[in-house]
TrEMBL record:
It comes from the Bacteria. The keyword Transmembrane helix applies. It comes from Streptomyces broussonetiae. The chain crosses the membrane at residues 15-34, 55-74, 80-106, 118-141, 153-170, 177-196. Keywords: Membrane, Transmembrane, Transmembrane helix. This is Integral membrane protein. The keyword Transmembrane applies.
Length: 254
């Protein structure tokens, strides 16, 4: 285990990336637990205010991200300074992306349906960083044996092929499938061979003169969204908390 850790994590200089990913995920989870406790009025936590101004946690997140980012650029990735900066950067990024919807809408939409975008962005970011951590493992390791070179060559070829499948899925309007398919080959294959979503670049390019294909794609997209909207919302609620119900607007009132 120690040999594998050194050859695949420490020697290629990927320890800071692993630490940043761990800090990113842990910060997001802890932040969501704390905000849900604050929302429920439980525990010793409360909103941070300064002079009547509500300080969102995206503010310290930006500060930590800047410090960690510039510190990582200026430090050695194999040294202790690089590891510390990676943790700071991952922590800051977790705080920032937890309020991604607030930045996007320039409004406090944390506990609304629009706030679900923060959860989606965090999950996609963690998946992409995990892909970087796993996908680039064949690069940066020194003094490989012939057998290791051959095995890693096979891995590189597999990664390249799977990446092309993920690009096809992305062109078909399947962003989530493309991201997770970049990590799981079977997902990328399924996304690449299935019908494209209406309005995607693939559909505009190849379905323009095929009305039957357009109709099938539209029907399939409708059925897919109807089938998976509920489970997707339930998963998002479990991770990030259930949004507040929308206020009912009475007729004649604005």
């Amino acid at each position: 285990m120690g040999h594998w850790w050194y050859r695949n994590i420490v020697e290629p200089g990927k320890l800071p990336l692993l630490l940043a990913l761990a800090a990113f995920v842990l910060t997001f989870l802890v932040t969501r637990v704390i905000t849900r406790l604050i929302r429920a009025g439980r525990g010793p936590f409360g909103n941070v205010r300064a002079g009547g101004l509500h300080i969102h946690h995206v503010v310290p997140g930006v500060v930590l991200t800047v410090i960690g980012g510039f510190g990582a650029v200026a430090s050695d990735r194999h040294g202790m300074g690089g590891a510390v900066c990676a943790v700071l950067f991952g922590t800051g990024a977790g705080l920032v992306l937890d309020e991604f919807a607030l930045i996007l809408h320039l409004d406090d939409v944390y506990w609304t349906d629009e706030g679900r975008k923060s959860v989606e962005v965090v999950v996609l970011t963690a998946a992409l960083v995990g892909l970087l951590l796993a996908g680039f493992a064949p690069f940066g390791v020194n003094d490989l044996s012939q057998q290791e070179l051959q095995d890693r060559g096979t891995v590189i070829a597999g990664i390249a092929g799977n990446f092309l499948l993920a690009l096809v899925a992305l062109s078909k309007g399947k962003g989530r499938t493309a991201v997770f398919g970049a990590v799981v080959p079977l997902v990328a294959l399924v996304g690449a061979v299935r019908l494209a979503r209406p309005g995607s670049p693939w559909a505009r390019r190849f379905y323009g003169r095929r009305p039957r294909a357009r109709a099938r794609a539209t029907l399939r997209a409708y059925r897919h969204d109807r089938r998976w909207a509920g489970p997707r919302r339930a998963l998002q609620d479990w991770i990030g908390g259930k949004p507040d119900p929308r206020p009912v607007r009475l007729p004649g009132r604005r």
